[in-house]
Structures are given as C-alpha cells and as structure tokens.
C-alpha cells in the first residue's frame, strides 16, 4: 500500500473503533467521561513504562485499561457521594492527568513519550513504524494494534449487545431484570480505555475525543435504531478520516486536525438538515402547526 493509503487506513480504523464505542457513551450521556479517560490514560501509559521499561502496545493497553477503570470508578464514587457528575469528572480528570504529566516529566522525559505527542499524535509517522515478524514487513504496527482493538470491541459488543443496549436506554429496568449494570458500565469504560490508548501514538487524544463523540452524536440525529446508529457512526468516522487526509494535503495543514474538522463539519450539516431532529425540520414543523392553528 502507498504512504497515503496507510494513513487513511489508520485514520479510518480510529474513526470506526471510536465511533462505535462512542455511540454507547452518547446514549448514556457520558460523552465528557470519554474526554476525561482519553487524558487520564496518560498516567496509565507512564506507569506501564516505569514498571516494564517498554513502550510495547500490550503494556500500554494494560496500564491504560487500569487507569481508565480507576477514572470511571472515582467519578462514580464522587457522583454517588453527592458531587455533581460534571464536577466529579473535572476533579478526577485534572488530578490524574496532572499526576501523569508530573511522572512523565520527572521519570520518563528521555523516552519517546511526551505530553504534546500524547495529545496531538503524529499520524504522518505511522507508515514508518512497522511490525516485522520473521524478517517480513507486515505494515504499520498502529494498524495492527487498532485492528486488534476493533476486533476486541466488536466481540464484546456481540457477546453483550442485549445487556449494553438495555442498560444504556433504561438502567433501572436492566437492573430489575438481573443485568449486572455496573459490570456493563466498567466493561464499556475498559473498551473506551483501550480504544484511546491504541489511538494515542497515531492521532493523539484530541482526535480520539472528536471521534468518540462527534460520529456518534451525528448518527444519533439520523436514526432511532441502535444497530443503524452504530453503522452510521462508523461510516462517518471513515468519511472524516479520508476527507480530512485529502483536505490536509490540499491546504497543507495538520492531518489529525483536519480529520476532526471534517467530522465537525459533517455534524454541523446534519444538525441543520437532519430529516427528524434538524433545525430545518423543526422550523418546518413549527410553521405547519402555526398554519393549522390559524
């Protein structure tokens, strides 16, 4: 594959993986928790490096998964103790992220890991960091990591689809019929954590947050069926990745930033033109009601 094709494939995998998981966050009204986890996993990456002295993907995934669960747990504890959910997210987010920055600057400053790299990423370097087994070049390692995480997420969604769906729409009913709501909650948080860290090295936390929230929010405006929402969200992630790459080539701008911008543009158009929830549809409905009353 060509250099550009690898970059578009990597961006598309990020868009599909984040978009699918993000749908459940949108339905659970937990979008900003994704922002918190996407930053606090930096602490998990640093701790994993300090323990293993390696930046291999498996160590980062384990470290990020643990800290992601810790983030969700602390937010839940503060919220159930009477702290408002947004305030709880803010406290946990800033505290754990700041601790990760301190550890990074104090103990891991000389390795290929820094705050700017974690936040912004550098997708243009992806085709050069390849996976080689037995002397055979298998392509960028980021593609293999993202593909593996996407497969894991799809398997988990397939196995627990009913439980995730019911607990997302009606947690009270899910608990009443015996679904382990808290287990499903932390399972979803684990999926968010590994998805975030798998995308760190390629696109950074900022694009991850955009892909976790914007495609799902856009799909939410277009359909009332969950399975269709998942498909639309994944498709929007791919369109944003490919469109963002070509826009970055034309205007010579950041590829990750361009991908996030294209996703935001798609949402803006959908917000206006959505046939059921868009501004135009609501305006037409209001005029129809006024016309009938008059």
Task: Describe, in plain words, how this protein is organized in 3D.
The chain has a single domain, classed as ABC transporter involved in vitamin B12 uptake, BtuC. It has helices spanning 3-27, 31-52, 57-80, 85-107, 115-120, 141-159, 161-169, 171-176, 181-222, 226-251, 255-273, 279-293, and strands at residues 130-133, 136-140. It is 80% helix and 3% strand. It starts with a helix and ends with a helix. It contains twelve helices and two strands. The model has no long low-confidence stretch (mean pLDDT 86). A two-stranded antiparallel sheet has the order 1-2. It has 294 residues and is mainly alpha-helical. The radius of gyration is 20 Å and the shape is globular.
Q: For the report, how would you describe the main beta sheet?
A: 2 strands, antiparallel
The helix content is: over 70%
Principal-axes shape call: globular
Uncertain residue ranges: none
As for the number of domains, it is: 1
Specify the CATH architecture: Orthogonal Bundle
Annotation field: number of helices: 12
Oligomer: single chain
Determine and state the CATH class: Mainly Alpha
Radius of gyration: 20 Å
Enumerate the strands of the largest sheet in spatial order, edge to edge or round the barrel: 1-2
Q: Give the topology string: H per helix, E per strand.
A: HHHHHEEHHHHHHH
Proportion in β-strands: under 5%
Calculate the terminal CA-CA distance, rounded to whole Å.
Answer: 63 Å
pLDDT averaged over residues: 86
């Amino acid at each position: 594959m060509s250099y550009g094709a690898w970059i578009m494939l990597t961006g598309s995998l990020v868009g599909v993986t984040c978009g699918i998981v993000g749908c459940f966050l949108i339905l659970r009204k937990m979008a900003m928790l994704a922002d918190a986890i996407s930053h606090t996993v930096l602490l998990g990456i640093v701790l994993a490096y300090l323990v293993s002295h390696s930046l291999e993907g498996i160590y980062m995934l384990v470290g990020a998964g643990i800290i992601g669960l810790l983030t969700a747990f602390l937010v839940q504890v503060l919220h159930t103790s009477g702290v408002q959910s947004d305030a709880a997210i803010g406290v946990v987010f800033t505290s754990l992220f700041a601790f990760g920055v301190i550890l990074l600057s104090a103990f891991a400053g000389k390795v290929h890991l820094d705050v700017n790299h974690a936040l912004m990423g550098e997708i243009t370097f992806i085709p050069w960091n390849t996976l080689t087994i037995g002397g055979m070049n298998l392509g960028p390692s980021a593609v293999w990591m993202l593909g593996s995480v996407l497969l894991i997420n799809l398997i988990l969604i397939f196995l627990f689809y009913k439980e995730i769906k019911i607990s997302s729409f009606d947690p009270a009913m899910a608990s009443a019929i015996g679904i382990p709501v808290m287990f499903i909650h932390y399972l979803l948080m684990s999926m968010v954590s590994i998805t975030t860290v798998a995308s760190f090295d390629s696109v950074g936390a900022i694009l991850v947050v955009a892909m976790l929230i914007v495609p799902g929010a856009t799909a939410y405006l277009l359909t009332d069926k969950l399975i269709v929402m998942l498909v639309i969200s994944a498709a929007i992630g791919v369109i944003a990745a490919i469109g963002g790459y070509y826009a970055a080539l034309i205007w010579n701008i950041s590829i990750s930033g361009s991908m996030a911008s294209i996703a935001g543009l798609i949402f803006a158009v959908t917000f206006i033109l959505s046939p059921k929830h868009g501004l135009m549809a609501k305006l037409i409905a209001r005029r129809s009601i006024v016309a009938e009353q008059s």
